[in-house]
TrEMBL record:
Pfam families: Ank_2, ArfGap, BAR_3, PH. ANK repeats lie at residues 621-653, 654-686. InterPro entries: ACAP1/2/3-like (IPR045258), AH/BAR_dom_sf (IPR027267), Ankyrin_rpt (IPR002110), Ankyrin_rpt-contain_sf (IPR036770), ARFGAP/RecO (IPR037278), ArfGAP_dom (IPR001164), ArfGAP_dom_sf (IPR038508), BAR_dom (IPR004148). It comes from Oryzias melastigma. PH domain binds phospholipids including phosphatidic acid, phosphatidylinositol 3-phosphate, phosphatidylinositol 3,5-bisphosphate (PIP2) and phosphatidylinositol 3,4,5-trisphosphate (PIP3). May mediate protein binding to PIP2 or PIP3 containing membranes. Keywords: ANK repeat, Coiled coil, Endosome, GTPase activation, Metal-binding, Repeat, Zinc, Zinc-finger. It is a peripheral membrane protein. GO terms for cellular component: endosome membrane. This is Arf-GAP with coiled-coil, ANK repeat and PH domain-containing protein.
Amino acid sequence: MTVKLDFEECLKDSPRFRAAIEDVQTDVSELETRLDKLVKQCQAMLDAGRAYCQTSKSFFNGLRELGHQCSRDTMMEECLGTFSTKLSVILEAQGEMIETTQKSVKTKLQNFVKEDVRRFTEVRKKFERSSEALEGALARNAQAPRGKQHEVEEASNALLNARRGFRCEALDYVLQINVIEAKKKTDIVMAMLLLMEAQAQFFQQSHESLSELDEYRQKLNAEHTQFVLDSAREKRDMEQRHAAVKKKDVSYDDSIMDFNADSTNGIAMEGYLYKRASNAFKTWSRRWFSIQKNQLVYQKKFKEQPTVVVEDLRLCTVKTSSENERRFCFEVVSPSKCCLLQADSERQQQGWISAVQNSIASAFQERREDTQSPRQRCSSMSQSIMRAGGSGGCVDQENNDCKALEDIQAIPGNRQCCDCGEPSPDWASINLGITLCIVCSGIHRSLGVHFSKVRSLTLDSWEPELIKLMCELGNNVINRIYEARIDEITIKKPNPASPRGDKESWIRSKYVEKKFIHKLPETGRNPQLSRSNNRATSLMQKPPLKPKPSRSLLPRITGLSTSDTNQKNSSDFNKDEEEEDLSGLHPGALLYRSAALQNFPLMADALAHGADVNWVNLSEDSSTPMIQAVLVNALAACEFLLQNGANVNQADSNGRGPLHHATILGHTGLVCLFLKRGADYNARDKSQKDPLTIAVENANADIVTL
């Protein structure tokens, strides 16, 4: 250890010693400042490294997911999977290097500053106090009068003690100076050695990992080169075919696929035909028809399940149709219905008629060659006739109803009555989205349909939109709203054994008087959105609505976290909607925004706080919560609003109601829902267009044929 200050010089307390001490103090102070700065820089480097590792991890995961998406391309899948795996290994090594740097550099330097430098500072302060005490003792000893022996002895003794204490502190100080000088060198050098060792180990591991891919990279590079050459050749061929096709006369293409009963894919005939709808409009729609498995089916999109027109071709006949004004029409007549179809040409018409007739003949030939017993053939034929006649749906309906019951009761909290806790409830309130026991359902029914609409889970039929709505809410969600203040009240919640009177009192307090929901603050502010109740002249005279509870209160009401409240269904909406602070909205505006976000807990919360289900936003073309739900194709949200009294015909400032918007956007399911709920399909907007006109202009055959 190099000696910075000598102990002998310390005992002399010479000016040289004092100057050396000042130099050391200056060095240590500057060292402390630089080390503090270095520790902060090291921490910033570590934080940036961890952030880099985290974002790199997300990037590598994205590469791996892209490889899974390219599973049909072996080369792409293998390339992305192999490289993302190796990069992840290197990233793990980098993370280990960052943690080693944390321990070896930052922690060591931080401990040096906090412990060694602090100890040096404490010893220095003791030395300075003992030095001041010695100077004071020397002054008092020099000032002691010769004639006063008592004062002289006291001054001499004080000087002796002060000198002894000074020497002790000075020796300690010099020792601490020499120790910190030595420790500075050892600790900093060791930290640097550990840092470089971690760096060297990281780069060595990375090099070894990448070296393992040398052979694969060379192979992939060769495949890529060949792929580029093949692609260039294919591109040249396609350009030549493209030029040839452009020269070809395609003004009249009467091609048709020939009938093939022995086709490998089971499709004997396929092609486009026009089909006349059986509704009142008698509209025509173009569909892809095919004859397969002794059935005539059609579909609009490839991934859709084909719709069966004729269940068994042996039970039908086919003939041309001359009664219709349209050309090239023919009829497929079965025991239950008649389907009118139109081909593009006379040749195609005759081709389809022949194909159906040949398919019928082939089916009967197969039946004659079948070894099935006469009893089995009769049974099978009866089932086909029943299915063709539409009388086989009872079993399916029962299965659907059982499935609905299971789906609804599987929602958290739905296996007990929402109000008394009775297990296995078999009743529900469809506008609240809760399950009830038979006693509580009777009480709910007595409240009136404007408070609760009761339906049996086992005895009534359930539409798909109602099932989806029930699955979006549930007892837990509704109780977090209507029983939010249950801990603050003295009324005891009834149990299954409670008298009916207690249950009725509780249910009326909960849903009619709404005693247990969180109350809105009394200090109101102007709502963020305008509101109208079809009385625009009195709008400005209305006092501002009370604001919604604060952001800290809102998650407790809905049972969601703040991030969940603002980000639910984020993939369906733009960033502005996701980041909007919904907690500042009054009930009507909250219902308006949450309908667009398809956030059912917030919608239920807004209705519980008195939101107008037909609330109008004057700042956005007098749009309503229903129209907002239509814009995002939210079938369940529309059903929820309708169950709670929404007007299905309320139009915006352009005269367009929910049915208009659903038709414009091509949301067939919503159009069916609104027509079923009595929407006026003759209503015209400011452009004097009704929904049917819009559907025809958009060439939306599905909506036109409803």
